C-alpha cells in the first residue's frame, strides 16, 4: 500500500444549451425520470462538439449548429460517478426535436427549469448560467 490515491476518472459529457423564445430545452431521462440537457458521453477520439452533434442526431433527430463552450461543471452522475459536464450553445435552425430516447422534452424559462427534478450537476450548471445571464443571451450571443 502506497497510500497514494489516483485521480478520479471523470466521465466527459457534452450537453446542449438550446434556447428558443427565451425557453431552454430540457430532456427527461428514460432510465430515472431526472431532467437533463440533451447530449452524452464522448467516444474515444471524438471531440466534444463532434460528440454533441452525434448525440443530438441520435436522441433528438436534429442536426444542430454547435457554438461556443459556455462552461464546464464538475459534479456526479445520478449513479454517483465523477462527471465533467461541458455545455455548448447550440442552434436548431427551425428543426423540431423529437424524444427518440428520452421520456419527454420540455421548453422552460430558467426559473421554471429549476423546479424540475434535475440531475444534480445540471442544477449547478444552470444556476451558474443564470447568474451570469448567459441563459438569456445564449440564443443570440454567437
Ligand atoms: N446527456 C447528459 N448526461 C448527463 C447530464 N447530466 C448528468 O449527470 N448526466 C449523466 C447521466 C449519465 O450517467 C451520463 C451521460 O450518459 P449518456 O447520456 O451518454 O448515456 P447513458 O449513460 O444514458 O447510456 P449509453 O450512452 O451508455 O447508452 O452523464 C446531462 O445534462 N446530459
Automatic annotation (TrEMBL):
Q: List where the protein spans the membrane.
A: none
The alphabetized list of GO BP terms reads:
DNA repair; DNA replication
Per UniProt, which keywords does this protein have? DNA damage, DNA repair, DNA replication, Hydrolase, Magnesium, Metal-binding, Mutator protein
A matching Pfam family? NUDIX
Question: Which EC number(s) are documented for this chain?
Answer: 3.6.1.55
Q: Which residues form the Nudix hydrolase domain?
A: 8-131
Cofactor annotation:
Mg(2+)
Which reaction equations make up its catalytic activity?
Answer: 8-oxo-dGTP + H2O = 8-oxo-dGMP + diphosphate + H(+); 8-oxo-GTP + H2O = 8-oxo-GMP + diphosphate + H(+)
Q: Which domain of life is it from?
A: Bacteria
What's its top-level EC category?
A: hydrolase
Q: Name one GO molecular function term.
A: 8-oxo-7,8-dihydrodeoxyguanosine triphosphate pyrophosphatase activity
What protein family is recorded? Belongs to the Nudix hydrolase family.
UniProt-recorded name of the protein: 8-oxo-dGTP diphosphatase
Organism name: Desulfoferula mesophila
